[in-house]
Write a structure and sequence with these properties.
The structure is a single chain. The protein is an all-beta fold. The protein has one helix and 24 strands. The strands form six sheets. It has a four-stranded antiparallel β-sheet, with no helix packed on it. A four-stranded antiparallel β-sheet has the order 2-3-4-5, with no helix packed on it.
């Protein structure tokens, strides 16, 4: 990977919790403390639009081409309309769990949550389609399920930083297997590059997991400027990887995949 100029967010520090690519050079960011979602043009370092919510946003994903959804710390999901340069609210959905991660899955939404730990697939209107928890699994596989990635083959991947594991599920939330290699350390942000490759934020680096060969390789670490990464997103059109750290920051790091 080749380091590109950072995306500068101006003079205000943001505690970026999650990111998702919209299209082209545009990305969405959630800022927990400020209760904000920002639409950023990474090519021009411009915050095109920002919206202040009633609660604190956490994970975010694109549900449709012009609709995003972010989890809130109030057991809710906030939907957003994403225009060319403008964000607007698009309704709130109440859920009965402390939602952590979110991802789009076909025409539905996958959620991870804690207290008790579990994963759900729900419709955009809140109808529960599938549920996975430790009772259904018959063993304690989930402690703090965090971030979610969905793959083109309908697989669902969930990171769990308390167990240092990644669980692969099918579209019915049946457990296929768990990844628990020694190199995994507080896994958090995760994205699926294709059916065979995952990129995962570790405690102090970013690793590439190749599923077919059961291999894991550190691709970014302190030598590349990466410390305590919490979130990543990939813009396919530009072949760029965006990295946000745990700490409050003025900038998002950008890397070009070679």
């Amino acid at each position: 990977m080749k380091r590109q100029p950072d995306v500068l967010l101006g003079h205000e520090k943001f505690d970026i919790v999650d990111m998702t690519a919209v299209s082209g050079d545009k990305i969405l960011l959630t800022s927990y403390k400020e209760k904000k979602v920002l639409l950023v043009d990474s090519k021009t370092d411009t915050v095109l639009s920002e919206i202040v919510l009633q609660a604190k946003p956490q994970s975010i994903c694109m549900v449709e081409s012009q609709q995003a959804a972010t989890t809130l710390n109030t057991k809710q999901i906030q939907f957003l309309k994403v225009k060319e340069t403008r964000l607007t609210t698009d309704g709130v959905l109440d859920v009965d769990v402390d939602v952590r991660g979110i991802a789009a899955h076909k025409n539905n939404i996958v959620l991870s949550y804690s207290s008790p730990a579990g994963v759900k697939i729900i419709s955009k209107k809140g109808k529960v389609i599938h549920t996975l928890n430790n009772t259904r699994a018959g063993r304690k596989v989930l402690k703090e399920p965090e971030c979610i990635a969905t793959a083109s083959d309908d697989s669902i991947y969930v990171t769990d930083w308390r167990t240092n594991k990644i669980t692969r599920l099918d579209s019915s939330l049946t457990i296929l297997y768990t990844i628990a290699w020694p190199m995994l350390d507080d896994p958090c942000g995760i994205i699926s590059m294709n059916r065979d490759q995952l990129l995962v934020c570790n405690y102090d680096n970013i690793v590439l997991i190749e599923l077919s060969s059961s291999s894991m390789t550190v691709i970014l670490d302190k030598q590349h400027g990466v410390e305590r990464p919490c979130s990543i997103c990939f813009c396919k059109e530009q072949n760029k990887l965006y990295v946000a750290p745990v700490v409050e920051t003025f900038n998002i790091m950008v890397y070009k995949l070679l």
